[in-house]
Batch of 4 targets.
Target 1
Amino acid sequence: MARESDRRMLRTALEEARSGLAEGGIPIGAALYAPDGSTLLGRGHNRRVQDGDPSTHAETAAFRSAGRQRTYRGTTMATTLSPCWYCSGLVRQFGISRVVVGEARTFRGGHGWLAEHGVEVVVLDDPECVALMTDFTEAHPELWREDIGA
């Protein structure tokens, strides 16, 4: 059951990733869910290209969309790609309890560090997430390197 819930959350993140790609941006999406696993608090996608703002990653956009919460304990951040160090720091800073990762093949990110520090991490290795990022990084390597600061 938890696996189906995780896949449902990831579908929301995938919708966001597709929106970002359609806007000419980086195809990474995220969604923040309440502790019950079904209430969507916020969603967003990487908007660095669209907004000219290097800090607007998918996870930060979903977090901002959620607005102020009394606590983030028990919440789940679903993201199509392993979170970078910046977004991993956001998860730790605000005490987000779980991270569902669509894929970690094209970018390893900080999910291992999160797990070492008590965050429950589920890597789904979703083929659609892998294809989305593989296709994008092959078509736009310079844009991808710019986004991850390489």
Note: The two ends are 39 Å apart (CA to CA).
Target 2
Amino acid sequence: MPGITLAVTAWMLSVASSYTHSVNSLPDIDNEAFIKDCVHFHNKFRSEVKPAASDMLYMTWDPVLAQTAKTWARNCWFEHNKELHHPHKLHPNFTSLGENIWTGSLPIFSVSSAITNWYSEIQYYDFKTRNCNNVCGHYTQVVWADTYKVGCAVQYCSAVVTGANTITNAAHFICNYGPAGNYRGSWPYNKGSTCTACSPNDKCLDNLCANPQRDQTTRYYSIVYPDWPIYSRNIYLSRFLIVSPPVIILIALITILVKHR
């Protein structure tokens, strides 16, 4: 399945955390420093890939992806969101979404350590042959050239069951990506001099292909289920579902009054 991988880091530090968190200090998805870190560290690693990438897109924040990650993270389940495989169900612009999950003890969590942990899988990946001798899916999703949107969330969980183990006092960190990466048989990016394969309207920014027009998104949220974003064609259905009950009650009252007269 494209774009979906899990990681457990309960006992080690991937890198020295820039800061540590307590239960009450975990950032929400509208926290500017959190957003900046998520975008920065993804782009940092994307700009530094070896061999160099000729077509790597600059990644920007997407609030719909972040809301999807937040809603799923609340479950404290060490498994992937099955709705990601339903075209257009969770996002108005992407037919498929990717997902990386990191779960570890709360004191060692930081955005930098989690994303660095994902990227560290490069040691198991052979770019020439596309072979992986361990787990590489987090790395390949982080550096998937066509992915240009990311949204992340972190949730405190008293316990997360990960196979035969249980992580207590856990930070459950999820990033969703659009469009998804990790398609079998494909390289994550095309190697070559940086930005040489960017689209004509792109600008080269930190070795990445950037385009403000491409980054524009239309944001939709379900009226009935506000925690879940929806595809634009379902907006009218959502409005009908929330408006119809009061209308039906009003019609019933009018009918009763007419009958009594």
Note: DSSP finds six helices and nine strands in the chain.
Target 3
Amino acid sequence: MGSALQVARQALASGDVPIGAVVAGPDGAVVGQGRNVREEAHDPTGHAEIVALRAAGEALGRWRLDGCTLVVTLEPCVMCAGAIVAARLDRVVFGAFDDKAGATGSVWDLTRDSAALHQVEVVGGIRADECAALLADFFKERRLR
């Protein structure tokens, strides 16, 4: 989670919401990382998870990311949860829960839905206070502007 938080902080320079993600390969080595780039790239799909999954696929030379773990600072949304299932990840580890748009247990639970093509192990709340504080500080500063 420390690596994901470092990546998240890099988003602050571009004005993007500070969310970071890393993909660990089957051996535990980082094979992809990403941060939100929606503002910077003018890309509605530019979520940290999507960027990290693309990087991992490129690094591994395959779209199936079985054996891999995604670590992300905020609970994934519906779009990202769908990509996680499609990528056949083994597990997702996230920091802060998202009670408004979380799709790995808070509002929806797409990654463990029995109707999905693949179910993903989910571990939430890792360094949740630290992850949530980064987001809260960002939005507090944004409201002051």
Note: The longest strand covers residues 30-35.
Target 4
Amino acid sequence: MDSKLSFKSYTVVGMMLFALFFGAGNLIFPAQLGQYAGTEVGIAILGFLITGVGLPLLGILAIGYSKSNDLQDLSSRVHPIYGIFFTSLLYLTIGPFFALPRTGAVAYEVGIAPFVSEGSIAAFLLIFSIVFFAIALFISLNPSKIVNSIGRFLSPAILVTLGVLLVAAFFAPMGEAGAPQGGYLDNAFMTGFLEGYNTMDALASLVFGIIVIAAIRKMGVNSAKGVLGATLKSGLVAAALLAIVYTGIGLLGSSSTGTLGLMETGGPVLSGASAHYFGTFGALLIAVIITLACLTTAIGLIVANSEYFHKLIPAVSYKTFVVIFSVFSLVVANAGLSNIITFSIPVLMFLYPLAIVLILLAFTSPLFNHARAVYVATITVTFFIAIIDGLKTLTGTLGVANPAWLQGIIDTYSTILPLYNEGLGWLLPAIVTIVVTALVVPNRKAASVEAVRN
């Protein structure tokens, strides 16, 4: 029989989940959105919250609902090789390719760059990133309870510091919201929706889900229904906190352009706003807190990636992976925050549709008796649309013309796929494929899907 959890228990797990999701990098995207959305910030934030808050919540619930052991277990319902491919790519994306070096770049942008002359930015970034990742490497080699203790301190500290800053901005805005820029001018909602991909939280939720479920089971809840209900209630606590913080920072960003100017990333917006309201002390305080938060996030990502790949490739030791990921992230961090964000977008445009469709399949799986054929068909259809989205975004990022074969496919997709120009061309085909293949596949439990247990 399940233990009856109190509201306090749900709040504790919800705060833990909030801390897992809320890396310091997440601060910069709603700030940047606010600046560029300007007067359209409200509708843009709504789109952002769907992918930045709603999808991560669904990802956590999908792991619990599917009764999977982990992400690889769930994605192996397509095929064991796909399970390894998808899980590895997801870990590398939220690890050394993008999110991990981003921790060092964000810490530098907020904590150091405001106090460095323009000509010395690159040199100081190199020095800072060497120190930052050296500390992360050292602690990751022997992770201890110290990191968890710091994390428990930092989450409330970030919330309090941000709370004071956002209250000041609410009662004394820096200025009026400016005119919307770029995609926010014509389609603020979808631009905000796609901007939410940058948090990478929906991807991370597929990794964090099992951590939350384990915490709930330790509290005495073990039935499938009980775990799912407790996960939902705890997830709503984390979702509410994320939504409040994202909305507040977005509004702060929208009022800052007149005073701070239009920034390339959101980091200088936060440091500039802190200095505006609380002087040098305010800028230093938020710099220290965010730098420490980035460091603990970096350690967590190094440990998670090293543990996964050591399990995948036992011949390579955990400590070797720690060194590889730390050094690789150090190199990438020196490309600068703007470049890291820019080059992550094509990968996210490819990976996010696959992640969202996997979440959708996890929830609908009982309706087609978990048949592997439905998983294979739906992921295949999504893959061939998402890969073109990723390549199209990459050529746009590099500023080069699309090859003729690629442009031909893009033109065809634009003509036949609803919502393709909005970045959601994969959605209707995926849903149709689930429905059609579910009707075609014999109505029996697929023995090939060993991950599903009663």
Note: Residues 350 and 386 are 5 Å apart (CA to CA).
